[in-house]
Amino acid sequence: MIDFVQTIARHGIPAALARSWLLVAGNRADQFDRAAESSADQVILDIEDAVDPKAKPKARLDVVEWLSSGGEAWVRINDHSTDFWSSDVDALVGVPGLTGVVLAKAESSQHVTETFDRLHGAVPVVPLLESALGIEEAVTIARARGAFRLAFGSGDYRRDTGTSADNLAMAYPRSRLVVASRVGNLPGPIDGPTVGSNHPILREQSMMTVSLGLTGKLCLDPGQSEVINEVISPTPSDLSWAREFIADFIDRGEVIRDGSDLPRLARARKIEKLARAFAIGP
Fold first, then answer.
1. Residue range(s) defining the domain that contains residue 175
2. Distance between CA atoms of 74 and 234, rounded to whole angstroms?
3. Which CATH number goes with the domain that contains 168?
4. Is 238 part of any known ligand binding site?
5. How many domains in the chain?
6. Is 130 annotated as a binding residue?
7. 204 among annotated binding-site residues
8. Confidence at residue 7, expressed as pLDDT on a 0 to 100 scale
9. How far apart are CA 33 and CA 21, in angstroms?
10. In which residue ranges of the chain is pLDDT below 50?
């Protein structure tokens, strides 16, 4: 199987580390180029909830045409239970610009594996967990063949469960995705989007994303990507601390002094790795 973790990148940033994932309605072909030119780490053309059912066939054709003409993006396809899923998958087989698919409303490992296999195992699948059942099955979904990263459909999850948007109420499903991703040996999960253009609120919610261990976030406007990228990235001061700690550890002959050294060393190395990937200097 292709090592998707190493081969998928945009702006030089591997999709496994991608912070901002920009959703673009699949029936707005006039916005595809603008999205591709944005600072978002990854772009997702959405032919699921963003498109009226009657307009889905035309949107699917527009997406395939753009991807076949030099464009590169992920595509959010309709969920496995719908009549649209099979047509979406069949239309995307072998399309040259297809980076991968985001599978809407994933609720079982079978949904992921069947999607992956129907695409001939050529592109990865990001399962979008949007319901109580999806969250409950997060571990088995994370272990499914073809699963690349988990993503959280926070709006539909709230609709399904009656949960409010309060950070405390939403901490449980987010933490489930973080734990499931670790158990499934996947990169950190992708958080749901923040609606609106208020950057202080977006910054606050992105900080909550980071604090719970998620490492990416869906966004609905190109202008949101810069804020998300900044908040999810290590700061220059983080990098300075990491380099100082690693240098001190080496200078003392890599001797472990106490039980806090190894966790701090792991954090320092992670910060240094992310700083290199995101081109951040001290």
1. 4-232
2. 26
3. 3.20.20.60
4. no
5. 2
6. yes
7. no
8. 57
9. 15
10. 1
